Amino acid sequence: MNFKVNIIGLGIMGKNVARALSRNDMVTVTAAADFKDENLEEGKTEFGLEKTYKDYKKMVDAEKPDAVFIATPDWAHYEPVMYCLDAGIHTHVEKPLTTDEKEAAGIVRKVKETGLKFQVSYNHRWLAPYNATWNMIREGKIGNCIMGYARKNNPINVPTVMLPWAKQSSPMWFLSGHDIDLMTWWFDDDPVEVKGFGIKRVLKEKYGWDTYDAMQGLVKFSKGGFATFESTWIYPECHPAMPDSFMEVVGEHGHIHLDRKTEAIEMSGSDGFKWPRSLLNYKVFDKWVGAFPSCINSFIDAIAEDWEPYVTAYDGWRSTAVLDAIHRSADTGDTVTVSAPPV
Ligand SMILES: NC(=O)c1ccc[n+]([C@@H]2O[C@H](COP(=O)([O-])OP(=O)(O)OC[C@H]3O[C@@H](n4cnc5c(N)ncnc54)[C@H](O)[C@@H]3O)[C@@H](O)[C@H]2O)c1
Fold first, then answer.
1. What are phi and psi of 93, to 5 degrees?
2. Which CATH number goes with the domain that contains 32?
3. Which of 143, 251, 257, 285 is the most buried (most CB within 10 A)?
């Protein structure tokens, strides 16, 4: 068995997908599409891609891959997802599913209609402490979830240096999706009502960007539980965490805290004081390990062994519905009622 795989969007994450699949014997990554020549050149030299394309539609039509991995920017997921599903191709998409609740609902319906394998890259579910939290909750160790809190914050060089499209995004879209996915997974519940807050000051004054510096959202779930999510990306550049990440879930008779800020390593040296990252995507000897490659390769297992992937389109809808509602609420000042889940 060998699946022909293509990648749409060969930037930071698209290349990580190619690396994660590089030791998977069930897969050959044959082609990638991207607007940027330098990314396509790297695809040929680093990953030995046979073909590269500027237009993903031409690639999909010509290559007829078994599966695609989409890693375009947040707001550019919907069109390639729908195109690939319409072409009968198993599809994996980077988080968030889309940046619009209605589009997300449309994808849920399309996946159901086609019966294709589909997964959203909410890879934190493969990080052992978060996965253990899910198991402990399912085993009844803290009772039913009633309250949650999650914070994810980055230093300002992430939006201003690392992310070329930050001004079209926000700290919530970029940082909180994983937290919202984990919380809805742990609560196993749909969001019903959202109140969001945000402030546009520092990035606006310094760079003229019309995006939020910091955001907070309070989400009520259908069974009465609630959770707060917050994120900022204007910590000073000297902050050693990328990101500063903390989560809490409170049950009827217990609690769980998850502190990922230091990633279990502290160092100081020529680069200053740091908590270097290694838990999500790290090359151990000859192989990429961590939550990200586990998630990517799990999707291939789901196709090969014919089971439902661990992060479904419906799960992706839940996070997008919350994120979309927090932004609408922050923009207008209103409390937003979340649309009924797609059926
Ligand atoms: N799962 C995770 O943990 C995780 C982590 C970081 C980023 N992400 C997500 O991954 C996605 C990509 O982020 P990135 O950091 O790789 O961005 P990036 O800017 O490095 O790469 C995106 C690439 O997509 C290309 N592109 C845009 N539109 C295209 C189109 N229509 N056809 C072909 N190529 C197109 C761009 O030219 C660019 O090279 C985002 O949605 C981001 O939020 C996920």
1. -125, 140
2. 3.40.50.720
3. 251
Residue nearest to atom 32 of ligand 1 (CA): 34
Based on the fold, state whether residues 79 and 56 are members of the same structural domain: yes
Q: Does residue 114 form part of some domain?
A: yes
Ligand 1 pocket, mutate which of 7, 19, 35 (most atoms under 8 A from CB): 35
pLDDT per residue as tens digits for the range 74-129: 999 999 999 999 999 999 999 999 999 999 999 999 999 999 999 999 999 999 99
Q: Domain tally for the chain?
A: 2
Query: Is the pLDDT score of 11 beyond 90?
Result: yes
Range of the domain at 39: 3-123+299-305
pLDDT at position 68, please?
98
Query: Do 103 and 141 reside in the same domain of the chain?
Result: no
- Report the nearest-CA residue for atom 7 of ligand 1: 13
Contact 7, 69 (CB under 8 A): yes
- What's phi and psi for 109, nearest 5 deg? -65, -40
The pLDDT value recorded for residue 242 is 87
Q: How far apart are CA 133 and CA 186, in angstroms?
A: 8
Identify the pLDDT of residue 271.
84
Q: Which residue, by CA, sits nearest to atom 25 of ligand 1?
A: 9
pLDDT per residue as tens digits for the range 294-342: 999 999 999 999 999 999 999 999 999 999 999 999 999 999 999 999 9
Whether the CB of 33 sits within 6 Å of ligand 1: yes
Is the pTM higher than 0.85? The answer reads yes
123 lines ligand 1 (CB under 6 A): yes
Q: Is 160 exposed, middle or buried (0-12, 13-18, 19+ CB in 10 A)?
A: middle
Q: Which ligand 1 atom sits nearest the alpha carbon of residue 74?
A: 41
Edge-to-edge strand list for the sheet holding 51-53: 51-53, 27-33, 3-8, 67-70, 90-93, 118-120
In this structure, the strands spanning 118-120 and 287-289 are: unpaired
CA of 301 to the centre of ligand 1 (A): 23
From the CA of 163, how far away is ligand 1's center (Å)? 10
